[in-house]
Amino acid sequence: MSISLPLYVPFLFSTIQSAGIDLPASEVEASETVEKNDNLVTVVPEQKVNKTAVPNRLELTTEQLFNVAHQLAVNGALDEAIRLLSAIENNPNPEFRAEARARIARILLQKGDLRDSALMFQKLLDEKPDAAGARVELANILLKLGDEKGATRQLQRASAVSGLSDDVQKALGRATSGIRSNKKFIGSFSVGVAPDSNINRATQNAQIDIFGLPFQLDEEALATSGVGLTAAVSGLYRKNIGKNARLNVRAGGNGDFYRRSAFNDFTISAGIGVEIFEKNRSISLPITIGQRYIGQNKVFDFYSLAANTRFRVDKKSQLQLMAGVNYFDYRVRTDLSGRVLRLGLSYERSLSSTLSFRINGNISDNETNSEINDTRSAGGEIILGKDLGGITVFSRGSYFNTQGDVNFAPFPNVRNTNFYSGELGVILRRLSYKGLSPRFLFRRIESDSNIPIFNFSSNRFEVSVTRTF
């Protein structure tokens, strides 16, 4: 095939030379077999020049033509680059056609022709629907055009493609985060069933010793197993109130519900706060109120004030510092009412495009209306997440130590409790239906204390569906 260029010929051939292609010293006639070889293109300049200076016909392979088009684009000759690439659009080889359309779309994007760029990516996808990378690029363009639903749809289709490369998965994650960060309202919910060996977090020991004397515990004070409905929902509304500030309004709830309603346990909360952000850091000041219910009764109200600051350490990691105070107002056990001071540090890092981890550490001081319930706690957790092309695997391990200030009457000891927990879960995004993804989770909890009533263990398995929007 031949392509004509309305271009000053010496410039064209200097571009060809800069692409690493040798030129003959005199005119080269076009090969008679050019049209028969799908991997050859003959470039024919429109202007005639001195035949002894540069050739007026030059046979290039498709790969060489890609290099020339790249050099033209680098030199700012965008329209000429598009014309060269357009010749390959009709190449019988589908891989060459796809590559040419992708490059044309990117050049159109560089020119600011967003709609034409989107149409070219769509043309590519009509022929190669599994080109996940092109779908991610199209999603980013649609987002710039204000078509958030279209962008989300393209990302969902890209996520469903198996065998994604690391680069495509990384781009997919960035695009998904970009959509969520630009949305005014984001939320999530999950619902499922959860068999649990200890739904009331109580000791398994029917008898405990106090000062060497045995005491029998009531049945209600012992560990109880059960299968319940577990559910959680959360929502966040964001409104910009300045160039680098926005108002965040949150609400949510989570809980477990059983046939024996006395074991129901759920919490609801709502909050509002201001977030101030710059390129590499942000500061948020949230205020939260909430309530916890066990059975049919409200156990306590709580209120919290906090200050959080987040720093971007480098392209792959970020650091967060947290400080806050919680106030608890118990309805019946007023001796437990009081305040908790909290300090926390969190470090998050992406080890690759599909593997990341987060380490959280915090300390707290709990002061109540009764001295025997005053405690100090310290501990941390590590969270790992791995994307496996439509499947997300995550795990969490944590340890916390809680110590009292005085003897925990009627026991002769100052409380010292070690709390361990571990969990392993998987989200099958590949099996999503209308945004609902199956989720499986196993969690093990162990509490080891010198105060017998704080000794317990629990095994829990959740089967649920989850969705973010």
Characterize the structure shown:
By secondary structure, the protein is an alpha+beta fold. It has two domains: 2-179, Serine Threonine Protein Phosphatase 5, Tetratricopeptide repeat (Alpha Horseshoe), CATH 1.25.40; 184-468, monomeric porin ompg (Porin, Beta Barrel). The protein has helices at residues 9-18, 62-74, 78-88, 94-111, 114-127, 132-144, 148-159, 166-182, and strands spanning 2-5, 40-45, 58-61, 185-196, 207-210, 213-216, 226-242, 245-257, 265-277, 281-294, 297-314, 317-330, 338-350, 355-368, 375-387, 392-407, 414-427, 437-449, 456-468. The strands form three sheets. It has a 14-stranded antiparallel beta barrel. The radius of gyration is 32 Å and the shape is elongated. The two termini are 49 Å apart. The model is unreliable at 1-10, 23-42 and 44-55 (pLDDT under 50).
Key attributes of the depicted protein:
469 residues, Serine Threonine Protein Phosphatase 5, Tetratricopeptide repeat, Porin, 3-stranded mixed sheet
